[in-house]
Every structure is written in C-alpha cells, then in structure tokens.
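Hello again, I could really use a second opinion on something today. I've been staring at a protein lately and its backbone has me curious. Please have a think about how the structure follows from the sequence. I owe you a coffee for this, so here goes:
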Amino acid sequence: MTTTEKKYKVIGTRPIRHDGLDKVTGRARYGLDASLPGMLHAKFVRSPHAHARIKSIDVSRALALPGVKAIITGKDLPALPASGGLPGGEAFFNVHDIKENTLATKKALYKGHAIAVIAATSPHIAEEAAALVKVEYEVLPAVTTVQDAMKPNAPLLHDDLTTQEMGQKTDKHSNIASHFRFTKGDIDKGFKQADVIVEREFNTATIHQGYIEPHPALVDWDQNGHITVWTSTQGAFLVRTLVSVLLQVPESKVKVVPMEIGGGFGAKILPYLEVPLALLSKKSGHPVKAVMTRNEVFETTGPTSGSTMKVKMGATKDGRITAAKADLYFEAGAFPGSPVGAGAMCALACYNLENGMVDGYDVVCNKPKTGAYRAPGAPNAAFAVESVVDELCQKLKMDPLEFRLLNGVKEGDRRIEGVPFAKIGYTEVLQAVKNHPHWKAPIKGPNKGRGLAVGFWFNVGGEASAYMSVNEDGTVNLLEGSTDIGGSRASMAMQAAEVLGIPAEDVHPSVGDTDSIGITGVTGGSSATFKSGWAAHDAAQEVKKALVERAAKIWETAADNVLYEDGVFKMKPALERKMTFKELALKLASTGGPVGGKASVNYHTSGVTFAAAIADVEVDPETGKTQVLRFTIVQDAGKAIHPAYVEGQMQGGAVQGIGWALNEEYFMGPQGQMMNPTFLDYRMPTALDVPMIDTVIVEVPNPGHPYGVRGVGEVPLVPPIPAVANAINRATGVRMTVLPMSPGNVLKELLAKQKGNGKQ
C-alpha cells in the first residue's frame, strides 16, 4: 500500500507527546530512580592500564571491610558453549567477547576494563573497598589507533585472533579481525576512462555519543531463581537474552523492565552492568544497584570508531563518475565488531556507479569496544567520500548540487554490495535543496563558505509486538515493546489512532517489560516507529474488526452491513443508525465483554533513506576557529507520522554532526589513557555554538509500510560532517582531512597553506 494520495486525520499532525508532562515535571522514572528494600550498591575495580596481563587478584582486604557483602571477578562467570553470536540492531554480538568485556579474566584490554565488582551497604563503602582490591598486572605495550594496531610488529591484543580474509579464516595472527570487499564492474577500466581523478586519505578520532544519563541498573536474583532487571536500555529483550546466555539460566527466568532512557543514540544496546549485578545479587542475597560515573561512561562504554580512510574517485569532463574506490580501516576497540560493514554499504550508496570497490578492515585496539552511534560507520565514510566529491566538482568547475543530481541513484540502481534500490527519494531531496532559500541565498564576506553534502542510511526492521484493549470511556490502552528515546510512544499511538478514527490523545501508549509484551527488537537502526508502529496498526485493525462485529451484534445485522469511518459506526444501507466509538465502548461489558487486539510483525527493512545538508561557516584565519552561521538539513522521511519529532531528530543529528566535525574527540595520552573523560573537557556543542537548524521534510512514501514510513533517526547525522568540511574548504581554500576540524587542526592547515605545502 502506498500513501501518495492518501489523506490522514491523525498521521502528520503534531499532538503533544503522551509522556511529556511526566518528563518535564520529573515524575518519569529513570534507571537511577529504581530502588528496592535491602538494596546494596556496587562499584567496579577497573584497570588503570590500557593493556596488561592479569597475574593475580586479591580481594581479601576488601572482603574484610565492614559493610562489604560480596565480591566477584571474571572467574565467577559461567563457562560458555564454544561458539555463539546474537544479532542486535546493526551489529552481531559475539557472546564470548561480551563476557570478557563484562569482566576481564586474562587481560585488561583498555583503561577502565572491569576486573572485579563489589557490593556493599553504601556506594561509599563499595568505593572504599574497591581501592583495597590488589591486582597484579604485567603491563604490555598499547596501541590506540588503527595505524599503530595494523603495523607488522604491533603488540597483539588477542593471541587467538586470526584475520578473516574475504569471509575465510586464515592462520594470520594480527589485530585485523577481518577484511572484506564489495565490488562492482571493472575498477581499473573505470579509472582509465576518467579525465579527472582525486585521491585523498582521511583520519577521524574516536568520539562518544554524549547522552546525558549515565548507565544505571538494579538487579534482583531472588530465592526462586528468578532474575529481575531494571535498566536503561534500547533493547530489553536483547538484555534478557544476554543475561540468560552469560549466566546460563533460562530466558523464562529473566525479566527486564526498561526504565525511561535519558539518551542512547545506539550506545545503550549492549549491557555493561546487568550481568555482574545479577551475580552479586545471587551471592549476597540482596538486590544490587550500580550507576556509572561520567568517567566510566567515557572510558568503558561503546564510543564510535576512529578511522583511517582512503578514497579515490574519477570522472569525465562532463561530470560523470567513472570509478570510485574506498578503503575503510575502522577501530573496533578491544574486541572485533566495528561498524565498518555498515560504513562500506553506505560509503558510495548515493552515486550510480558502473565501477566501484570498497574494502573494509575491522581492527582491534586498546580502547573500549565500539558501540553504535546513529548510522554507525556512515558519518565516517561520508566525510571521506563527500569531501572527494566536492574536490572533483571544483576541479571540473561544476556545481556540486548538479554533479550529485547527474550521478545520483534512482529506483532500480544497484548499491555496491549488489542490493537494488526500490522506491527512493534521493532526487526529491536534492530538488528540495535546489529550491531552498538557503541554497539560493548569496554568501558574502571574507573567510566564509558554503558546503553541501549528502548521506545515505539503509535502516533496519525486525521483530515487534503490540497489544491493545478498549476502555469503557472510549479510550484505548496500547502496550508495545520499543523503548521510547525520541517520542516514539506518540508515533505508535498515532498510527493506532489513525486506524480507529479517534484522536491520538485517546490512545494511551506504554512500553512493556519482557514478561508483558511479545518479543520486540532493539530501538535501533531507525526501526522503532516502523516496526512497532506497524504492529500497533495491525493490532488496531483487529480491534476495529471486533468492534464492527460488536456493533453488528447490537443492531442484529451482519458485520458487512456496518460501515466504520472517522470514529463512527453506521448501519447500511441508509446509514441512519449510528454509534460513536465512545458510545460503543460503553456497551462492551453488557454485550459480550472486553475487546482487544494483538499483533506481532517481523520485517527486515524499514525503507532506505537519504539526507542532504547545507552548511555556511566563517573561519577565523588567526585562530582557526570555525563558526557555523547557517545550517539546513533536508531528509526523506517516507511519511512523517509526527512532523515535530521528525524535525527534532533532524536537528539533533545535525547538532551532533557539527560537534563531531568541529570539536569532539577522545584525546589519548601516551599510555593509552583518555585525557578528557568529562563533559568539562570533552567538548560538545551547546546552544551558543550552533545556529537554528532549518529542516525540510521530504515525503516519498515507502511502499513497504502501511503509512509509507521510512526510518528517520540516523541519516541526519551522516551529511553534516562533510558539509562543514566542504564549507571550510570554500571559506579558506584548505581541504581538511582530519576530524575534528578543531581550531588547532584548521590553523595547522592554514599555516601550511601559507608556506605553500597545505592540503588545497
């Protein structure tokens, strides 16, 4: 079903979000608010070294401290089967790596790697006890960048890791976990056809998602063997599965209660606290709670990859791309699993190429295991590719927008990995840029420039469930399983309300725990509104059918004789007998009992999507400081269920992209330690650093969804970084190939340009 001509009563409106009042008044309960009688508090013993062999752990002094009730180390984790992996969002998790990341047994692989965990009657006692644990280390050389980790003589993080080459295991021991390749056409032939070729190398720093709420969890392993987890997570069912697998207990004995979540952006998918707290709870006989410090969040949870990328692209004089090649080397952190695969799929996806090749390398290094961050891998790749595209346009003296229109993908074109595009809105996004006042406005004055960039994200789908029941007052309760990060409760309620012909305010949505709702995949991959909204739509259809049958029963006619539209039941043929939704709801108890509906779906794609960004900047030539003067983000949402929340996602992604472009980085010390693990020193943009972000929602309906929805949460982070980079180039004449484009890095290139050896 497509929605090109469809008109809606609820979809596309802007009701106030159902949970808004609780959020702004402090009534909403977050993970930090979870509490139980007799609860203990946990603190972690963490490695001070980035790479060290664990020779011994002595907990005797800590155990003797009054108030300490239990201590565990990695040896307390059960042995696991020889192999095992689990899907989660865009990633595939190796359970053995997750186990070792939870509590190290042989080696500490990054500063902050958990070694032991202590439960005590207060957090202060637990912290004091942690200082009494004696760990003997054999300190080893650390590698904290892709370049260092890939050197032939680099110290190995894992003695048993061998490189997987093109999907095949090898006997080569290295820090390169895997190397893969996507290819299309004849790359050598394509470059021979080119009149102009641009080739560049790019380097990006590790950065963090920067969510406001640090990770909290409370776990109770009761005497009946049941484990209950209260946590801040994007995937309650994934947490349930990992707790079950890592502790070797049946899933039926694990219940996960997702609390409100104070930001995640992909990084609150993997559990860090839940398994150790469960073991402490079992050992102590008490519920156990832990909340990470901000230092722990930065040093031990999953940032996104730093990367080294090489991009080569050729084109004819008339602007046709003849060939493109990208080599992507991504940090995985301490364990394999960087987002290089997703980055490779997205790198060249905006361009219709006859000849292309992308090589991806997943490289381990002595940093925390990487996690997802809004379109993981794609922003890195877009920075490199879109910078090269911009340079090609300059050499060809061609308008960067017209170049992208000329080479842009359309329905039926194949991506580099072979997947054909269905109905897409890339051309419509570019046309919206072309028609926007920002693109048409002149940019005047010295040291100012305008940059354009585009981005792609494939989105994912997955499993989702929804349950619905009709109340006697004519409202509806909706229970679904997708954790709400950016207002998705409202989106689910609106999709259900559209089916039922009632106001969105009359649908009361809530997120269920793993015992009360059917399996639902993680809130990730821009999938939540797509999959849980579809489940809500289907559950509402079931309710609608049941209500029509109930009205027919009351009127003593066949269900086919009942017409239902806009919340009113009418009896055919004259349509004189009528009942509103609320009037029928009042009669349910006396005419057969409650009415409800349920649905479970499992769709594997939520509709690919594109975005474009326009950035105007001014660069101070004396300091290198870049100020963003104006910024516009254009995006195909398929169908914007709640336009205000789509705009919020777009603006949020743009601001994060500006921060990633200009300021944010893990500044690493000589011993592999992060030197800026606080919000005081990790520089994120504030309202003073960014202009008002203009948004343009393009709607090219996704034919694979009842309302045409495409995922919207991730693609707005993809084009902002290269848009800012291209704007800096237009303002200064230097081509930035390193992130962040901080004042120091920009000034370095400006000075090099003055000396005649800068990147121009």
